[in-house]
Amino acid sequence: MIRPRTTTEVLEAVRAAVRDGRALRIVGAARWNDAGHPVRAPETLSLAELTGVVSYRPDDLTMTVEAGTTLAELDATTRARGQWCPLLAWGDDHGTVGATLATATSGPFADALGRPRDLTLGLEAIDGTGRHIVAGGRVVKNVAGFDLTRALVGAWGTLGIITRVHLRLRPRPAVDATFAFTPRGAGLPPMPIAALAQVPLPSAVAATLGVADAAWLLRVGANASAVAAARAALDGAGRVVELDAAAWDLVRRDSAPPSPARQWRWDPLSLRLRDRFDPQRLLNPGLLGEAP
Amino acid sequence: MTALATTLERIVGPTHVLSRPAALLAYRSDALPGHRLMPSLAVMPGTREELVAVVRALAADGTPFVARGAGTGLSGGALADGIVLLGLHRLRRILAIDPAARTATVEPGVVNATLTRAAAVHGLHYAPDPSSQTACTIGGNIAENAGGPHCLKYGVTLNHVRRATVVLPSGEVVELDRGDDGGYDLLGAFVGSEGCFGVVVDATVQLTPDPQQVITLLADFLRVRDAATATSRIIAAGIVPAALELMDQATIEAVESSVYAAGYPRDAAAVLLAEVDGPSIGLADDARAIEQLCREAGARGVRVATDAGERARLWQGRKKAFGAMGRVAPHLVVQDAVVPRTALADLLEEIQAIGAAHRLRVCNVFHAGDGNLHPNIPYDADDPDESARVHRAMGEIMARCIAAGGTITGEHGVGLDKLAYMESLFTAETLDAMCALRAVFDPERRANPGKVVPVRSCREWHATAAAR
């Protein structure tokens, strides 16, 4: 297994692979191994040692991290400043930032807080021709040039290996409350503010959380008076138990939707994209079900 | 009359193909002065079938073309240099509005504000609101990934496009989406490609529910630096304003001297226009917090407007600032760059210094919450000396923004105007990768040639050119 510690080492490994026509299986924390189809590659390139916060600018709400950095480290670093990068992906926080972006794995808060592609301001990657791409930037609005960042996020490593990313952060809400809700009658009442997430609570998860009869799990993040109003609306329509936000870890672990990698669309345009960035099919060949 | 013109006339009818120079004059420029180029002819399809047939005829002829919506762009991107101009303004049908799904499907020539007006009966609107929204088209917005004041909270065009049917320069018609069900983000790559990847035939965009309540605040400052500080503190406090706009003294003066006078204090060094919107519950708390943060940063006064009339008055100066600058000089270059928010205060001072050194007046009116600067320079484009000074000043401003960790455009695009800065912003390999991305959609480089990425940065094109 190749275990580069810098972008330059990834670049060298890919250029050697290009020269020899040797395919690479790319892994972060190696937690997505069975998400797609089997990868046909003699060698594995792991980004697990390409880790660390490169720069954190709390006042700009931006952060640059190496791709192998875990979501847990990202969360711990930003929490200290009352911020977060709300990727909060399906699975758990042992996964890496690079894999979360490469697989475009969102989570229960995606509609309210953004998907990986919305939280990625720019990135560095090595494509399948050995080009070192430095795309996007550290600013929150950017239309300079063609959007390589959007092309690479969600490509499952088949166009390029993401080595470093610039992320957009958000302040954590002033009040962040998680409620288990047991409706008296018709279900969820109309809410005065939009929830960060509201999901039907599987009974097994409800039992684990000690709220066996609860049917819904909600998270509300806003200023104090808005959260109080949301709580009052729930109180008026059923029984409410406030839980620690850690309750969402169970939902993230157990409710992941099926992987889109199993039903990849290989239309002519997608094949041309692959041809331009990985003509030799060196990066994760077979993962997205394409013909050899 | 050339054979191509005859073919195109057969497709769209003779009144919709223009080839006389006098008729083509209207297409010589966009909204940015300083770039003037004449197309060889202009063709305006009126239906999607005509659009596809026109693109196929151009493909068969091997002719390059430039797609154009309303021509309100600010990068020289919609100019055709002796090639065919493809006008899309006749394709202005709203094909469907689905209030339950909160989407609209439109042709590319639908005007941004027209879509919002059509959605209003459902309590919905189209959120991206460029200053040109009463004229600019959705197709143009998609090509440029357009922004606007309210994109701070609601996101830019890309965040509001669900899918699109696109005719590639080859004439092939393809469906693009974000790949959520298992596919590459081809729509994400297409939005903002400045007409170099293909032409939108129709697009489905998201509509946003009108907010229950809106509160607008105007804070005035005696130092620009304090207004920039207030901006950073508001964002860092976790409040997400719907908009957060900064106008400096030169802009205030231009606005207040014009028919668009909004009652901004003339002696202020800067005003900050902030807006919060959403459910009324808790909204007043956010507005109070903004007021408090502005006062702590040194605001002399804060006006709070809750009724529609007073809010409209506060916004008038912002929305009409570019028009107001028309009083000052015959031409106005509206520039665009982005820096990290924390660099705003220093950058604004440097921009003033650069303006002074070149004997130019710079009026700043911009999206402070995003760090998206718009340094505008009123000048006379027919004065070669002044034009040269504007050009030099803009180059220096762009260099400063890049050095501060920023970028050369946040919402106007590269077009022709920013081509020269691309090599100082991106590495040769990255520019080559951009060329590769373009080649996926337009391998013959016939759609809007010569824009966005300097031709010499493309290895493959270079190789073909050298081989010739």
Textual characterization of the structure:
The complex is a heterodimer of chains A (292) and B (468). Chain A has 292 residues and is an alpha+beta fold. Chain A has a domain at 175-245. Chain A has helices at residues 7-20, 71-79, 97-102, 110-113, 116-119, 148-152, 203-208, 224-235, 247-254, 268-277, and strands spanning 24-27, 43-46, 53-57, 62-66, 83-84, 120-127, 132-136, 160-168, 170-171, 175-183, 197-200, 216-222, 238-243. In chain A, the strands form four sheets. Chain A has a five-stranded antiparallel β-sheet. A four-stranded antiparallel β-sheet of chain A has the order 11-12-10-13. In chain A, strand 3 and strand 4 (62-66) form a beta hairpin. Chain A is elongated. The two termini of chain A are 23 Å apart. The mean pLDDT of chain A is 95. Chain B is built from 17 helices and 20 strands. Chain B starts with a helix and ends with a helix. Chain B has 468 residues and is an alpha+beta fold. The mean pLDDT of chain B is 95. Chain B has five domains: 3-87, Uridine Diphospho-n-acetylenolpyruvylglucosamine Reductase, domain 2; 94-209, Uridine Diphospho-n-acetylenolpyruvylglucosamine Reductase, domain 3 (2-Layer Sandwich); 211-325, Alpha-Beta Plaits (2-Layer Sandwich); 329-414, 2-Layer Sandwich (Alpha-Beta Plaits), CATH 3.30.70; 419-467, no CATH class. Chain B has helices spanning 3-12, 21-24, 48-61, 112-119, 138-144, 151-154, 186-190, 224-236, 249-256, 283-296, 308-319, 321-324, 344-357, 384-403, 422-425, 428-441, 459-467; strands at 17-18, 41-43, 65-68, 84-87, 94-98, 103-106, 124-125, 161-167, 173-177, 199-206, 208-209, 213-221, 243-248, 270-278, 301-305, 331-334, 337-338, 363-367, 372-373, 375-379. Chain B has a seven-stranded antiparallel β-sheet, with helices on both faces. In chain B, a hairpin with a 4-residue loop joins strand 5 (94-98) and strand 6 (103-106). In chain B, helix 1 (3-12) runs antiparallel to helix 3 (48-61). The chains are: A alpha+beta (292), B alpha+beta (468). Chains A and B meet through strand 7, helix 6, strand 9, helix 8 and helix 10 of A and helix 7, helix 8, helix 10 and helix 16 of B.
